[in-house]
Every structure is written in C-alpha cells, then in structure tokens.
Amino acid sequence: MNKFKNFIIIFFILFVVWMLLNNSYTSVIIISGLIVSFVVAAVFCSNCNVFTELKLTPKSILYSFVYIVVFLKELVKSNLDVAFRVISPSLPINPGIVEVKTKLKSKMGRLILADTITLTPGTFTVDIHEETLYIHWIDVKSDDINKATKEIVSKFEKYLEVIYG
Amino acid sequence: METLKIIGAIITLIGSIFLFLGALGLLRMPDVYTRIQAGTKASTLGTILSLLGIGMIIPGWYGKIIILIVFVLLTNPVSSHVLARAAHYIGIPLSDKTIVDKLEVVEKLKVDKLKEESPELKTISNFSPQNK
Which of A40, B15, B60, B63 is 20 to 30 A from residue B31's alpha carbon, by CA? Predict the structure, then answer.
C-alpha cells in the first residue's frame, strides 16, 4: 500500500512538471508524458519511502492548502521585516541562538518545519538534534524554551501535525 | 495587454528593490549569521516577485516560472542552513550584540566526546589554527 502511494505521488509530480515545462496540451505531449513518468516512477521508485508518512485524508489535503496560505503570508511578513531592519539607520538587531522543541515525529515533517522556519520572520534553523531545533533569531524576545517554542514553532506545527503526524 | 505588461514591469521593479535590500543587508550586518538572515529572507521574495513580473510580461512562460519558484523555495532554506551549520561548527564567532547561544554548549560536549573516542582526532586538532 505504501509502495503504491509513493509511486502515485512521484508519478503525479513528474507528470505535472512535464506539463508545466512543455506548456502545450496536444495529445502527443500528454500521452508521451504519461508513459515516460510511469516508466521513471516504476523504475526509480520501486522501494523509495519519501512520502510514506504523508497522510492522504480530506482533512490533511485541506490543511495543506491552508498551510500554503499561512506560509505565504509569513513569507511576505518576514521579507518586509528584514528589509525594514536593513534600511533603518540604527540597525535594530538583537540576535541569538535559542532552543525550541517540536512535537512532530516524522522526518519529512521536521524537514518541512525547519525549512518553513528558515523562510519566516527573522529566524533560521542552525541545527537539529532529534526533537530539538537550534534557531538563530534576529530579534530574541525570550530565551526560555517554552516561550520561544510558542512564538516560533506553534503556528506551523498545528497544521503539519495533521498533514504528517 | 499593454496594462498587463506595465503591471508586470512594476512587480519586477519591486522584486529588484527587495534584491537590492538583500545586498545592502549583506554589507550592513555585523556577523555571518545575521548576514545569512538578510541574504536568505530579502532575496526569496525578490526572486519570486521578479519571476512573477516576467511571467506577466510573457504569459507563455508561466509554467516554467512556477517550477523555478518551487525550486527556489526548496533549495534556499537548505543552503542557508548548511552554511550556518558549517560556520558554527568551525567556530566563527557571533557578533557582540548576541544575547544567547544555546548551541555552543551542546556542540562543545559533542566535540569533546568525539576526541575521547578516537585518538586520531586529537592529533589532527593539534594542527588547527587555534592551537598554534
């Protein structure tokens, strides 16, 4: 079952990339894309487990879209925040490396959480040890683990928990 | 058609302003880690906006532009994380403004443990620039 799920997702991603690259919808392109992505997925994904932990329930799919919207909002906020810090003459930074905990169990979930933290306001992941993330924060508000976790991680974790568990 | 082109040009201009601010941040920030912050953050939105603007001027490219945006979003955080990780591991100091560094303690323990376990590492570290 897991093998089939991985195969379907890889096949789907390959086909979407093919269609976006070609940018035309003639039957020749679609059929050759279907065949090639089927063969590539079947040959190279006979025992891959990248997407095994991804849940495919209606709730998780809905949460994925909500997550993308939340992420884009935070991305714009983060860029404006850093741009503001760069142009203000006094350079208002207050940096430090803090420790936060995550509740996520799956590797893929942790990877996406770390990537999201890197792309959002004034924070980026320096290191991960098991469930502890070390985060460089450009404007440290609190070096307490619980407060920092609430400030940085919680807003993304509640969606990723549903999507990856 | 003309208005779409003008809107695309304006969006590309806003994107290039963000890219410029990212470059300015690289000059103004005091240490490696805050420079990585400026380099990653401001340049992500700059690149995305520039690409979207180009997509509006030439609509046929939209598919490829979406692929490029996804690629930037996937690779940008990974590369900045690896740079920061390597910088901290070889001991590049943080700026004077830094308040806390929780990673330092953990890392020191790990390095000491490694040195105890393997004698070869001890001899290698004698040649490191800090010991000379």
Answer: B15
